[in-house]
Design a protein that fits this description.
The chain has 273 residues and is an alpha+beta fold. It contains 4 helices and 10 strands, in the order αααββββββββββα. α1 packs parallel to α3.
Length: 273
């Protein structure tokens, strides 16, 4: 067996070992994050709760802030290490008068051969580690995204209010449980699970409250669900995030969030049209 064949054999064995190890780690991560011993499903895992960030205007914003901070916590050290290694290599191998020519110097009349050795194996290990790490973060975010786009099954004693949201060119109509309708303005209580049932009567729109981190498509003939719990009083702007015609830029509404007692007083004055 030649040296080249021996090297190829070693790389095949190393690749097979890393493939098996990666699949084993992937299987464990999927089952841990998705909370079932069998691939599939997107149920949030009770073993890895999603902590709420303090001082967030809504529950959705608190979850997304935690997820962004987690990505930054992992991503910044990786960027620092990679950039630091790049600058170190540039400094170490910079052109100097007393620097001898490298063994793999490029010649005009010779095709360079690949330099497979310790450095290339280290690079392979680092790439596999980073790939597994990034996939783990993606797997962690999938059930959170699914939870925020669905309806939580257990509101944990929090009062619930369902609001129908009708999208049209170019405005929003909000309908409350007593069939009271308001156009381009909605009043909502704090510390209440607000469930938005969103649909369109003409073209495709997108119901979005950026400050509260709420966003869901509005389709004709179909109802989508979004939810939130608002913690801070104030006015929050609703935008359409889907280009829907000439009046798209003016398709804006305002959410007035207020304490539950004040909301109850306001709601008592409303009547169905």
């Amino acid at each position: 067996m030649t040296e080249e064949q021996e090297n190829r054999k070693q790389y095949l064995i190393a690749g097979a070992i890393f493939l098996v190890a990666s699949l084993a780690i992937l299987w464990f991560v999927l089952n841990l994050y998705f909370d079932r011993w069998g691939i599939g499903g997107f149920a949030p895992s009770p073993y890895l709760p999603y902590p709420l960030m303090a001082h967030s205007p809504s529950e959705n914003a608190g979850y997304w802030s935690w997820l962004i901070d987690l990505y930054l916590l992992v991503g910044i050290p990786i960027v620092v290490v990679i950039m630091g290694e790049g600058f170190l290599i540039m400094w170490k191998y910079r052109d100097r008068p007393d620097l001898p020519d490298p063994e793999d110097k490029i010649h005009e009349d010779r095709v360079p051969t690949s330099n497979r050795g310790r450095s290339s194996r280290s690079l392979l290990y680092v790439n596999i580690f980073v790939a597994i790490l990034l996939f783990s973060l993606t797997a962690y975010s999938l059930p959170l995204n699914n939870m925020l786009l669905g309806t939580p099954s257990d509101p944990a004693g929090t009062p619930t209010l369902t609001v129908m949201v009708e999208a049209y060119q170019w405005g929003w109509t909000f309908q409350y449980p007593n069939h009271y309708n308001s156009t381009d303005s909605a009043v909502l209580p704090l510390n209440t699970q607000i469930i938005f049932k969103v649909y369109s009567i003409d073209v495709m729109h997108d119901f979005a409250i950026p400050a509260l981190k709420v966003k869901v498509d509005a389709y004709p003939g179909h109802t989508n669900t979004a939810w939130t719990v608002i913690y801070e009083s104030g006015n929050y702007t609703v935008f359409c995030m889907e280009l829907c015609g000439i009046g798209h830029a003016n398709m804006i509404a305002t959410i007035h969030a207020m304490p539950q007692a004040a909301y109850a007083q306001w709601y008592a004055t409303t009547r169905a049209a």
